[in-house]
Amino acid sequence: MIVGERIRRPDAPDKVKGSALYIEDLAFIGALWGAVLRSPHAHARIARLDVTRARSVAGVHAVLTAKDIPGKNLIPMIQADWPVLAAQFVRHVGEGVALVAAESREAVTEALHTIVAEYEPLPALLDMEDALRAGEVISHWKVRRGDAAAALKRTDLVVVEGTYRTPYQEHAYIEPNGMIAVPDGQGGVVVYGSMQCPFYVQKAVASALGCDLAQARIVQTVTGGGFGGKEDAPSAPGAQVALLARATGRPVRLILSREEDMAVMSKRHPGRVRMRTAATPDGQLVAVEVDYLLDGGAYATLSPVVLFRGTVHACGPYRVPNAKVDSRVVRTHKVPCGAFRGFGEPQVVFAAESQMDRLAERLGMDPLVLRLKNALGEGDETITGHSLTVSVGFRDVLDKVAASSEWARKRAEYARDSGPVRRGIGLAACYYGVGLGAMGKHLNPAGANVLVAADGSVTVAVGTTEIGQGMITVLSQIAAEALGCPVERVHVVEADTSRVPDSGPTVASRTTVMSGNAIRDAAAKIRAAMEPVIADSGLSWVDAVALCVQKQVGLAAHGWAVPPATTFDLETGQGEAYMCYTFSANVVEVEVDTETGQTRVLAVHSGHDTGKVINPTTGEGQVEGGVVQGLGYALVEEHVLRDGRIVNDQFSTYIIPTPLDVPEIHSILVEHPYPWGPYGAKGLGETPIIAVAPAVTAAIHHAAGVRLDEIPATPERVWTALQAKKAGPTASRP
User: Fold this and answer.
1) What are the sequence ranges of the domains in the chain?
2) Using an 8 Å Cβ cutoff, are 428 and 695 in contact?
3) What burial letters (b/e) apply to 315-339, b meaning 16+ CB within 10 Å?
4) Exposed, middle or buried, 87 (CB in 10 Å: 0-12/13-18/19+)?
5) What per-residue confidence (pLDDT) applies to 452?
6) For the structural domain made of 445-561, what CATH number should be given?
7) What pLDDT shows up at residue 729?
8) Is 530 left (phi over 0), alpha (psi -120 to 50) or beta?
């Protein structure tokens, strides 16, 4: 089988050689430079906006404000609140106020400086708790299962509670956001860009221009990483650059600097989680109560569905008969937050898994044993009442990470460390609903076009995108397997809205499952047409295709995939929220210097039930990348804001892990096939990041005896906790 093999990535040679063409590398004759005038205020009324002098600057071809938008001043998203350009009010620092297109960078800069923008500052909501008290709720989700309130009052149960806080996280993709818009000569535009979701950008461009979707053609260029930061956010620069191209009749480049990208593009939502967890003295979970709050920033973007996913998974991959979850995301006058790998789960999983460790400590129980005792298995139900009947490999994952890490031996050995530098080992787990689920039904389907040429080469077009995760490799293998052709003959082309119907976004660990099934559907139609001609002939692929061409057999087909139905009751939070789930667990080993608070990660054992693994190498790469990103979230990544402005807007001040910080990573892929997935595959893209942070803080606690309820676990935070421990009653190590 081609599926399951470690084939080389088709896109790897060009990327390694530097010959891959990213958006910055593309050149169009007569292209102008584009730029955005941005608000310096978190919240203000635009008292005066005069662009007269800017329009007279030599080399300037267009200066646009909100009143110059021919279509709607609205970026279509879940809620109708996000303008292309601020019209009367600015609602976050960096919000676009005017657009400029000119012959040179110098002319653009001069024009921006000559725009007269006067503001009347207004009070700004900069704290999520203040926003909650003010009633600025974007979305509220809930889960009601059993009677959590009554259970938590029982005197025969052990109850632990805590309040947990998580920070902004920067996507830190290699390539900042960038777009080039080119008039197509027929009243429309073609927008090329670094993006995850061409169909999102298409809707934004058509809305702003007031044109048909067919006149807004969007082409994804080679993309230097996304992680969610190129899902919703690129719709704004896409619409803005299209407006400039329409106004000037010329190609326009709008490519953000790193500082601009960091200052104004979306982030992971900061979170606050209050949680109470109850269990019997022998460790059976009885009830969980969750109050989950996210800071959405100025506009809703994807916050409602980010919150939905966190709500559904708030109690972890465990049997919980009584659950009460209330989740809210609020509006503040800060940069809008949106999609980020893990999509609302890393925040709440940090809390849920910290609670499991607290509970294990109170019960005097090994944290692994507690998780195994309550682990979801086939026949169990999630907190939304979803009965799990297939592909539930959670216990298998726990067993394998425990074996890989030598959990029991190291836990006992590390507990004996007594010097200033101490080792610790921690465990955390999660599960992740594959696909868009019950709240994304209108975006669930995916399409694929497959064309077999006369020489046996195959062109595959899908609506999902390659953003570094290995989609091209995996889909090439699926196409080759389904057609029965050599994988080197398959060519997956760049995503282009003119090639396939809207296939939804490249998010939610859905690409392999959805685009893979669409490809299989198209390939099955082609094979069905070929079989009467080549049946039992024993011909090679090339000869079989040649014979079919001679017999005038059509060798092109469109495939379409619609996932199994999902349900969700908004009042009770009950239903089959997602079609299936990927299960994950991490064991992290650390070394903590108790004199400085410095934490060094020694090893991570990261296990995942991902169904059938299409390509083990790309799967392991996903795990390694997600783990490193999770370590950054756990230990060092933190944006500092002052009056709503991000202060550390470059990599010299926003710290991310470097290769020297990467520990030994053991990627453990566990196969529990999902029958509806292509060859049994499920998703893998997001679980590797989700449960890293709580495993790190659990390991710190095991090493140093201090428990952190807030991340990142910087040396300062760990040291402060150590000093507080010294000042208080002596605590025994777990």
Assistant:
1) 23-123+171-264, 271-437+571-727, 445-561
2) yes
3) bbbbbbbbbbbbbbbbbbbbbbbbb
4) middle
5) 98
6) 3.30.365.10
7) 66
8) alpha
- Would you tell me how many other CB atoms lie within 10 Å of the CB of residue 600? 14
Q: Do domains 271-437+571-727 and 445-561 have the same CATH topology?
A: yes
The region of weakest confidence among 84-98, 156-170, 501-515, 637-651 is 501-515
DSSP secondary structure letters along 612-679? S-S-HHHHHHHHHHHHHHHHHHHHT----EETTEES--STTTS----GGG--EEEEEEE----TTSGG
* SS3 (DSSP) at 473: helix
CATH number of 271-437+571-727: 3.30.365.10
SS3 state of residue 162? strand
SS3 content of the chain, % helix, strand, coil (to 5): 35, 25, 40
Dihedral sign of CA atoms 245, 247, 250, 253 in order: negative
Q: Phi/psi of residue 323, each to 5°? A: -140, 135
The residues facing 268 across adjacent strands are 169
The pairs formed by 83-86 with CB atoms below 8 angstroms and a separation of 24 or more are: 84/204, 84/208, 84/236, 84/239, 84/240, 84/243, 85/240, 86/39, 86/46
Over pLDDT 70: what percentage of the chain?
99
The structure's pTM equals 0.97
List the CATH code of the domain at 23-123+171-264: 3.90.1170.50
Please give the pLDDT value at position 197: 96
